[in-house]
Design brief:
Elements (H helix, E strand, L loop, with lengths): L12 E12 L3 H13 L9 E13 L4 E6 L5 H9 L6 E6 L3 E4 L12 H11 L4 H15 L14 H12 L6 E5 L7 H16 L3 E5 L3 H7 L2 E6 L2 E6 L1 H13 L8 H8 L19 E2 L11 H7 L1 E2 L7 E4 L3 E10 L7 E3 L3 E10 L6 E9 L4 E6 L15 E9 L5 E13 L2 E17 L24
Helix pairs in contact: 3-4, 3-5, 4-5
The protein binds adenosine-5'-triphosphate.
EC number: 3.6.3.40
Family: Belongs to the ABC transporter superfamily.
Keywords: ATP-binding, Hydrolase, Nucleotide-binding, Transport
Length: 470
């Protein structure tokens, strides 16, 4: 029987007005003395230490079978939120209601006793997570085999590397029939092979209708795994939406010098945006006629008219998300075939050209031009830039223009794809955005043969058959 769809079943997790406030002590002695002082004097209550709210009035319902990604800057409150869902931290106010068994991979090894062996920790953890003696005995060998560290299973966990600790912790979580799995960045310490195995297990868990909540700074992992993502900032939920929208806004937040201010308008626009259709299965669209692009520039800006004249375009994708544009703008984007003829539909293996024009309002020194291809889920499938290719394009003077052509073979199998473009510069090792236009063009790739998968790696096959044995 297939698991019920998220909309059919009641929420597995309900958070209502969840707030966590910590008391911060500048003086460690005052912290130690505080309980005694409170005993001596009622008036001392609440007068020492500063209150710091790590998570503010957070409300959310998470359905069975949902995979929710939580992203946000360092200190945004992600781990605190996960700890409250996992039950290891109590909220100061608000309620957390959980209707199922929770397994959590929080701070690495936090559930383990470092002086116990791997074997003892498996037994202890599986028991804490709700398995009975017989169930643990029946699954023990499988847990050890999954972890791949059988050789070290009788060594104390304090002697394990972080990758080995992760292997053990994940192996336990994967075997306890959890309804909800919570993962806090932990997977990042696993080697590539184990990460692959973890992701396959997570996919399987989702198919079985389990719920996964995971925190990651890896926006691609969020887009690959999740259908919904939440952006946390200073303890508050700024946005809940498609992983592509949320990670686009997050990228702007972390690269803009104006921080939160820089995304206010975007948040307002997204809140008014109608719900998206199934992004993973968009209906094919006919190639539209050329049309004028909307602009991020204000009408008052003296450069606007000149730039607008150039802003003729093949197609705007309705997903475009742009920012920057103050010092210069990517004014035109044309997708063409290898002859230079504009097109939006190709066949696997064909060569494309992406031609962009960048107009500088102020001198742009040490410019970098970048291109990314994404699939319909926002997953980056290819990206490059002039910096990675060891090119040093010339500065663009105020009022000047640069035209840039990216030429690349479309070695990808059929689907719908989006092009994102960036014009940035590096200042003291930091990326300063001149203009970024994400998901600006949408194009289709049609099949050229019956090969399958993601990438087109045209294989030749040689078969030698012997006519006699021996
Ligand atoms: N026990 C604690 N006492 C005081 N402050 C705390 C405590 N735990 C967390 N904080 C503070 O709460 C804020 C949120 O911390 P949290 O670890 O939840 O952030 P995060 O989003 O997970 O960050 P990161 O991405 O760096 O892991 C931070 O400012 C942190 O210093």
């Amino acid at each position: 029987m297939s698991p019920p769809s998220p909309s059919e079943s009641p929420p597995l997790i309900t958070l209502r007005g969840v707030t966590k406030t910590y008391t911060i002590w500048d003086d460690p002695t005052a912290r130690l003395m505080a309980p005694f002082r409170r005993l001596w004097s009622k008036s001392a209550r609440g007068t020492e230490g500063r209150q710091f709210t790590a998570v503010k009035a957070f409300s959310l319902e998470i359905a069975r079978g949902e995979c929710l990604g939580i992203i946000g800057r360092n200190g945004a409150g992600k781990s605190t939120l996960l700890q409250m869902i996992a039950g290891t931290v109590q909220p100061t106010s608000g309620t957390v209601q959980i209707n199922g068994r929770v397994a959590a991979l929080l701070e690495l090894g936090s559930g383990f006793n470092p002086d116990f062996t791997g074997r003892e920790n498996i037994l202890m953890n599986a028991s804490i997570l709700g398995l009975g003696r017989e169930e643990i005995a029946a699954r023990y060998d499988s847990i050890v085999e999954y972890s791949g560290i059988a050789e070290f299973i009788d060594q104390p966990v304090r002697t394990y590397s972080s990758g080995m600790t992760l292997r053990l912790a994940f192996a336990v979580c994967a075997h306890v029939d959890a309804d909800i799995l919570i993962i806090d960045e932990a997977l990042a310490v696993g080697d590539a092979r184990f990460q692959f195995k973890c992701h396959a297990t997570l996919e399987q868990m989702l198919k079985e209708g389990r719920t996964i909540i995971f925190v990651s700074h890896d926006t691609n992992a969020v887009k690959r795994m999740c259908r919904t993502a939440v952006l946390l900032e200073r303890g508050e939920m700024l946005l809940k939406g498609s992983p592509n929208d949320v990670t686009n806004i997050y990228t702007k937040l972390i690269t803009s010098p104006h921080g939160l201010e820089s995304i206010r308008e975007d948040l307002a626009a997204l809140q008014n945006k109608p719900p998206e259709s199934d992004e993973a299965n968009p209906a094919p669209t006919p190639t539209p006629a050329p049309q004028l692009l909307s602009s991020s520039l204000s009408a008052e800006n003296p450069g606007t008219r000149l730039l607008a004249e150039e802003r003729t375009h093949q197609q705007i994708s309705d997903k475009e998300y742009a920012y920057g544009g103050e010092f210069g703008e990517i004014t035109s984007v044309v997708l063409a075939d290898h002859t230079g003829a504009p097109r939006l539909s190709f066949v696997t293996g064909q060569t494309i050209q992406v031609r962009i024009t960048c107009a500088a309002r102020q001198t742009v020194t040490a410019p970098i031009y970048a291109l990314t291809l994404k699939d319909v889920r926002g997953q980056e499938i290819y990206g490059t830039n002039t910096y990675f290719q060891n090119q040093n394009p010339p500065d663009v003077p105020a009022g000047g223009r640069a035209t840039v052509t990216f030429t690349l073979p479309l070695n990808i199998l059929p689907g719908v794809f989006f092009i994102s473009l960036g014009w940035v510069r590096l200042v003291n090792g930091e990326v300063v955005v001149i203009h970024r236009r994400y998901d600006v063009l949408r194009f289709d790739v049609m099949p050229r043969d019956k090969s399958f998968g993601l990438a087109w790696c045209p294989a030749t096959i040689e078969v030698h058959t012997a006519t006699t044995s021996g």
